Amino acid sequence: MKPNEKVKLEMNDISIAFPGVQALSSVNFQMMSGTSHALIGANGAGKSTLMKVLAGAYDHYTGSITLDGKQLPIRKPKDAKDYGIQIVYQEVDMLLIPNLSVAENIMLEKLVHDYKGKSVVSWKKIHKEAAEIMKSVGLELPTGKLVQELTLAEKQLVLIARSLTMDCKFLILDEPTAPLSDSETSRLFALIERLKQEGVGIIFISHRLPELFQICDDITILRDGQHVISAPIHSMDQAQVAQHMLGTQLEAQFPERSSHAGELAFEADNIADGDKVHGVSMHVRKGEIVGIAGLVGAGKTELCRILFGAAPKTQGDIRLDSKRISYKAPHQAVAHGIAMIPEERRREGIFVEDTVGVNLTIANLTPHTRAKTWLSRAKERLAAQSMISKLGIKTPNDTTRVANLSGGNQQKIAIGKWLLADAEVYIFDEPTKGVDVGAKRDIYNLIAELAEQGKSVIFASSEMDEMIGITDRMYVMYDGKVAKELVTAQTSEEEIMFYSTGGQAG
Amino acid sequence: MKAAKVSGKGINWFDFLYKYGTLITIVLLIAFFGLATDNFLTKESIIGIFRYISITTIIAIGLTLSLAVGGFDLSVGSTASLANAVVISMFVWHSQNMFVSILVVVVLCVLVGVINGFLVTSFKIQDMLMTLATMFVIQGVALTYTRGATISKNMIMPSGDYAPGSIPAVFGQLGKQPWIIIIMLVAVLIVHLLLTKTKHGRYMYMIGGNAEAAKLSGIPVKKYRFIAYVLAALFAGIGGMVLAARVMTAEVNAGAPYLMDAVAAAFIGYSVLGSGKPNAFGTFVGAVLIGILSNGLIMLSVPYYAMDIVKGAVLALALGITYYKRKH
User: Which of A3, B31, B93, B255 could staple A199 via S-S, CB 3.0–4.6 A?
Assistant: First the structure.
């Protein structure tokens, strides 16, 4: 397709409902090929749903999708792909075959379609073609490497590469930068620029406003399943976008708090796992929020898992209130009063098939039982309901399945269960990932409140503004080591970034 | 919004059948066999069905516990065979009393459960494959122990003498109604209470639902999985002993045929009243369904050797419904 052949994609009057939820009501969306379009909204606003409709993930929507005025009857993923609409989902692992090579994963669709009726595959050709596409997206790996050995960022590039093997008029990227480091992000943006030049229309879903302004031409904002506004992106500023997303004036995101760290509570000495963490030492005082800063892949998640006993360590000591403690599994860590809110919410933090109530009480069931054995539904309900109102979890009641709630509310539940468990040390691993602005603020407030109560908080995040906004002190990790310890009041995002990217104090 | 509404109705219809399908099927089968045969609805026949399903149910209850923690104990049939052989041999070969004989079997079954539990929690091998291996090991142990022969009262020992012991009459009573039915109902009730009313049951279901999230919620996952396998072996052992009490002999691999019935009962049980999880009451209902089907078909003169076709088909249907539901 030539760059000058611009086509117009329109989605008109799109509505879709799921049991108990009207996910989209009469939403309109339109864009030209060769442009990039930001799609934004708070969690639960319907942006992912809208894009899934476009990608053919649902067949029970109403409304029409047209390309240059021609109706596209998209009802299944194959339809969308045939019309040149490709999507790269946020959950990359769902779409990759871990025990096949990079080349096979990239050429998967081609293998399926081009080899229809043929039985013999030319692996040489496959690997050669894959290598070319990999080069064009900036993926520098052996084509024979197994996908299960890749990082999240690499997996995402594999998926983008796969989209490009097919006819690609419109490419939907769902939160593509969430797992990426800064250099990976800028490489992705360069790739997007190039695809635009080649006439591809990019739909870009993200929560990160600054990068949308950097990369997108137009913006469409959704709220509660409804279309709010579509406009050229530079006709607005960030505050206005946030305002449209929330529907109310944006307040200060981070809570006002004064540091009053008490005595030493949690200490880790020379922790290593022989792989991703190399000799990390840190300490946290009572009432202190200590950040673990660093980019994706710096070893933050691995460190958090070790501190919680969820991953083995090969060396190092942990002390709580100056007493050496040892534990090999999370339940033993919990017995010492340590809690962790894991990064991968849906896989690790919550039980999606179970109710809000069950999820909230699971980390500390015993107080909701008689004789430490028999469950008391009344006590459970009481505890769940108080937590629902305390955290402002938006759910019809405590017996709703968690799967039906939005990401932000799911995260509140993942945190809430540890509030009911009443721990002393709280480890948060990327607690605001994939969470909308409003829920983020609630989560910051909660964390601040925990510190206020004298709890020790470890806050791992790759968002530099969070480090500045919420912590008292931080350890900047780079390549599995603590590169620098910084006092928040005396540092800046730029300084954190400097050490995160391997900068050395001169 | 038309499309959404139409498909919404379809889902409800499926949900209704999912929830009540098993119970409706049971009622329809009873009506059908009641009309098609003369003596299906007699008291004797109904008690016969309960007696028939009690061993299946007890073994299936153990299996249900392993399913609840996301496992799958395929070795329950073999464990029942072993328990059957050992308890009869304790009476007949070693002239032991009931207390000692049953205690030996219980200890042995706990040991089997400990081995299974250790293997499935220590290695990252699918439970079904691991217990497939132990299924054959346990079966082999039982066969070796009995030297591949049937154990019964007054059997001829290798020395040429008759076996010295006899099976106590009280033990035989356990295999007759009402006791056999009472044992079954107590087993169902205990596991039902364990799974639905206690903290431990909640933990087990959470582990079965998402083991990683359970681990990170501070649940001792290995411990509970271990316990589930010990209990599964224990219930299989009880099932084997009740089988022994019912037939008063130990046939070669007597417990093996109960495996498929137990698996079918447990999986039919997933859907009963829309639970969507392995559960004791559902397993019982599943066993009732299989019992009615088997007894009714026998009365209709369907030969016993064709029965596996029907049971296998029922299992396939139950699995199909369970997994279809999970996807939706």
Answer: A3
Rounded Cα distance, A209 and A213, in Å: 7
Q: Among A355, A390, A422, where does a domain finish?
A: A422
Of A444, A457, A412, nearest to A253 (Cα)?
A444
Q: Give the confidence band of A44 by pLDDT, cuts at 50, 70, 90.
A: low
Rounded Cα–Cα distance for residues B313 and B318 (Å): 9
Residue A366 included in any domain:
yes
Is residue A394 within 8 Å of A406, Cβ to Cβ? yes
Could you tell me how many CB contacts below 8 A there are between chain A and chain B?
87
Contact residues, chain A to chain B, C-beta under 8 Å: 15-17, 19, 59-62, 308, 310, 329-331, 333-335, 339-340, 342, 347-354, 358, 362-363, 365-366, 369, 372-375, 417, 421
Tell whether A251 is covered by a domain. no
User: Does domain B2-327 sit in CATH 1.10.3470?
Assistant: yes
**pLDDT over threshold 80, residue B305:** yes
Query: Touching check for B216 and chain A: CB below 8 Å?
Result: yes
Nearest to A7 by CA among A146, A170, A133: A170
pLDDT of residue B3: 37
Q: What is the pTM of this model?
A: 0.76
**Helix, strand, or coil here: A395?**
coil
Could you tell me if A310 and A330 are in contact, meaning their C-beta atoms sit under 8 angstroms apart?
Answer: yes
pLDDT at A237: 80
Residues A39 and A61 reside in one and the same domain:
yes
Tokens of A25: 């009501």
CA-wise closest residue to A457 among A492, A499, A419:
A419
**Can you list the pairs that A256-265 forms with residues at least 24 positions away whose Cβ atoms lie under 8 Å?**
A257/A448, A257/A451, A257/A452, A259/A288, A259/A472, A259/A489, A260/A287, A261/A285, A261/A286, A261/A287, A261/A288, A261/A472, A262/A286, A262/A287, A262/A288, A262/A454, A264/A321, A264/A322, A265/A320, A265/A321, A265/A424, A265/A425, A265/A456
pLDDT tens digits, one per residue of B205-229: 999 999 999 999 999 999 999 999 9
User: How far, in Å, CA of A161 to CA of A137, rounded?
Assistant: 7
Q: Is A119 helix (H, G, I), strand (E, B) or coil?
A: coil
Handedness of CA A453, A456, A462, A466 (dihedral sign): positive
Domain around A472: 264-337+424-497
Residue A221 and residue A114 share a domain = yes
Contacts B212 to A, Cβ<8 Å: 347-348
Lowest-pLDDT choice from A129-143, A252-266, B218-232, B301-315: A252-266
Closest CA to A403 of A439, A344, A356: A356
User: Cβ–Cβ contacts within 10 Å for residue A349, how many?
Assistant: 28
ipTM above 0.85, yes or no: no
The pLDDT > 90 percentage for chain A reads 42
For residue A256, being part of any structural domain is answered with: no
Give the CATH number, domain containing residue A65: 3.40.50.300
